[in-house]
Amino acid sequence: MVTVIAYTSCGVYVVEVWDGDRTLPVLREAETLGVGGWGLRAVAEYATRWGVRLDQRGGKTVFAEWEAS
Questions:
Q1: Rg (alpha carbons) of the chain, rounded to whole number
Q2: Distance separating alpha carbons of residues 39 and 25, to the nearest angstrom
Q3: Residue 38 pLDDT
Q4: To 10 degrees, the CA torsion angle through 56, 8, 24, 35?
Q5: Is the model's pTM score more than 0.90?
Q6: Per-block average pLDDT, block size 10, for the chain (69 residues)?
Q7: The pLDDT value given to residue 33
Q8: Which residues fall within 8 angstroms of residue 30, CB to CB, at 6 or more apart?
Q9: What is the DSSP letter of 40?
């Protein structure tokens, strides 16, 4: 199961994605002709800030923030 939450806070757009896997995502080189590695690479390129929080109940939340200007 995956949960996606999007909201604004103090002039910042925030998207949070939770899943039950505690494995941390790794920012890696995208495969030029393949499909792997593009998701987190795109987030890192366009987000003002991004990161990961481990959930005490299990799983993790990957978040990204953008200025709402």
A1: 13
A2: 10
A3: 78
A4: 150
A5: no
A6: 95 96 86 73 92 94 92
A7: 67
A8: 36, 37, 38, 41
A9: H
Q: Which residue has the tokens 């002709």?
A: 33
Residue from 21, 29, 11, 8 nearest 62 by CA? 21
Looking at residue 68, its pLDDT comes to: 83
Q: By 3-state DSSP, what share of the chain in percent is helix, strand and coil, each rounded to 5?
A: 15, 45, 45
For the chain, the domain total comes to 1
User: Range of 63's domain?
Assistant: 2-67
CA atoms within 13 A on the CB side of 5: 9
What's the token pair of residue 10?
């103090």
| Rounded (10°) CA dihedral 56, 36, 12, 22 | 0
